[in-house]
Amino acid sequence: MPVALTSGDPAGIGPEIAVAARLALGAEVPFFYIGDPAHLPEGTALAEIAAPAEALLVAPDTLPVLVQEFAAPARPGTLDPANAAGTIAAIRRAVELVRDGQASAVCTNPIHKKALKDGADFPYPGHTEFLAALAGIDRVVMMLASDALRVVPVTIHIPLSEVTAALTPELLEETLRITHAGLIRDFGIAAPRIAVAGLNPHAGEGGAMGHEESTLIAPVLDRLRAEGMELSGPASADTMFHAPARARYDAAVAMYHDQALIPIKTLDFDRGVNVTLGLPFVRTSPDHGTALDIAGQGVASASSLVEALRMAHRMGRNRRQAA
């Protein structure tokens, strides 16, 4: 089954990198684009399809497009709230197609949250929360993944000053359980090895630099180890991400946003993929935003989207085999 790729905000780089990804991948990854054909770059070789299965019949150098109507033309670099409803509808449609068994996974191009709020009163902080709502679940986990590293932050888009209050045993345990299950189901790793970072420098250094490691993190790890999970840590984050350390685990769980994202963006900036674990369907996304400043100039890199499509295809296959 093909992957469903949403348009994202048509003022951003989504339409042009979708075309570039098709040319880069050819027949390697079957996918189709949900959006307005008029929003694609001039001269794009495209084929309008009526159903996802038709994407498999389209030539490798031609983009299969499942038409989604938008209210306004796309002007690269200039947001138009009139297109918010179409952007949201493309996401909703992709989810419906995957849940109906017509597509293997959802891959989402970047959205612009303010444009969605201004144009459609979008009530969600972003893609992840909207997808969780469509799935009817309360808790999902964000993973950033590449060939070099998979990493999960327990707390995400909150000020550093609020991390300690937000970091609870329940949140850490839930994150670890969802990560462990996702590695098995979506990545095909039968017995995942997960490394867990401490919160403080040197993992608290025996209490000299903080006590969260001993009072909060370690008890959760001990409890889950007793159930059979292979967990290491809490470890000092500054020694977790060099090559020999990375060879000892399948994913790292970090306590806050930058502790997780700085390593992967340093190691593999252009090919990192945003993965949402815990959904009843596979979802990936390139690890960048709409890039309005370069939209329409023909300079945007499709590398992250190419990797997101590849990963969505593999994860969809793994999930079907595990079913």
Automatic annotation (TrEMBL):
<feature type="binding site">
    <location>
        <position position="283"/>
    </location>
    <ligand>
        <name>substrate</name>
    </ligand>
</feature>
<dbReference type="GO" id="GO:0042823">
    <property type="term" value="P:pyridoxal phosphate biosynthetic process"/>
</dbReference>
<feature type="binding site">
    <location>
        <position position="274"/>
    </location>
    <ligand>
        <name>substrate</name>
    </ligand>
</feature>
<feature type="binding site">
    <location>
        <position position="128"/>
    </location>
    <ligand>
        <name>substrate</name>
    </ligand>
</feature>
<dbReference type="InterPro" id="IPR005255">
    <property type="entry name" value="PdxA_fam"/>
</dbReference>
<keyword id="KW-0520">NAD</keyword>
<feature type="binding site">
    <location>
        <position position="157"/>
    </location>
    <ligand>
        <name>a divalent metal cation</name>
    </ligand>
</feature>
<feature type="binding site">
    <location>
        <position position="265"/>
    </location>
    <ligand>
        <name>substrate</name>
    </ligand>
</feature>
<dbReference type="GO" id="GO:0050897">
    <property type="term" value="F:cobalt ion binding"/>
</dbReference>
<keyword id="KW-0963">Cytoplasm</keyword>
<comment type="function">
    <text>Catalyzes the NAD(P)-dependent oxidation of 4-(phosphooxy)-L-threonine (HTP) into 2-amino-3-oxo-4-(phosphooxy)butyric acid which spontaneously decarboxylates to form 3-amino-2-oxopropyl phosphate (AHAP).</text>
</comment>
<dbReference type="GO" id="GO:0000287">
    <property type="term" value="F:magnesium ion binding"/>
</dbReference>
<comment type="similarity">
    <text>Belongs to the PdxA family.</text>
</comment>
<dbReference type="InterPro" id="IPR037510">
    <property type="entry name" value="PdxA"/>
</dbReference>
<keyword id="KW-0560">Oxidoreductase</keyword>
<feature type="binding site">
    <location>
        <position position="202"/>
    </location>
    <ligand>
        <name>a divalent metal cation</name>
    </ligand>
</feature>
<keyword id="KW-0170">Cobalt</keyword>
<keyword id="KW-0862">Zinc</keyword>
<dbReference type="GO" id="GO:0008615">
    <property type="term" value="P:pyridoxine biosynthetic process"/>
</dbReference>
<keyword id="KW-0479">Metal-binding</keyword>
<comment type="subunit">
    <text>Homodimer.</text>
</comment>
<dbReference type="GO" id="GO:0008270">
    <property type="term" value="F:zinc ion binding"/>
</dbReference>
<keyword id="KW-0521">NADP</keyword>
<dbReference type="GO" id="GO:0050570">
    <property type="term" value="F:4-hydroxythreonine-4-phosphate dehydrogenase activity"/>
</dbReference>
<comment type="pathway">
    <text>Cofactor biosynthesis; pyridoxine 5'-phosphate biosynthesis; pyridoxine 5'-phosphate from D-erythrose 4-phosphate: step 4/5.</text>
</comment>
<feature type="binding site">
    <location>
        <position position="127"/>
    </location>
    <ligand>
        <name>substrate</name>
    </ligand>
</feature>
<feature type="binding site">
    <location>
        <position position="257"/>
    </location>
    <ligand>
        <name>a divalent metal cation</name>
    </ligand>
</feature>
<keyword id="KW-0460">Magnesium</keyword>
<dbReference type="GO" id="GO:0005737">
    <property type="term" value="C:cytoplasm"/>
</dbReference>
<dbReference type="GO" id="GO:0051287">
    <property type="term" value="F:NAD binding"/>
</dbReference>
<dbReference type="Pfam" id="PF04166">
    <property type="entry name" value="PdxA"/>
</dbReference>
<protein>
    <recommendedName>
        <fullName>4-hydroxythreonine-4-phosphate dehydrogenase</fullName>
        <ecNumber>1.1.1.262</ecNumber>
    </recommendedName>
</protein>
<keyword id="KW-0664">Pyridoxine biosynthesis</keyword>
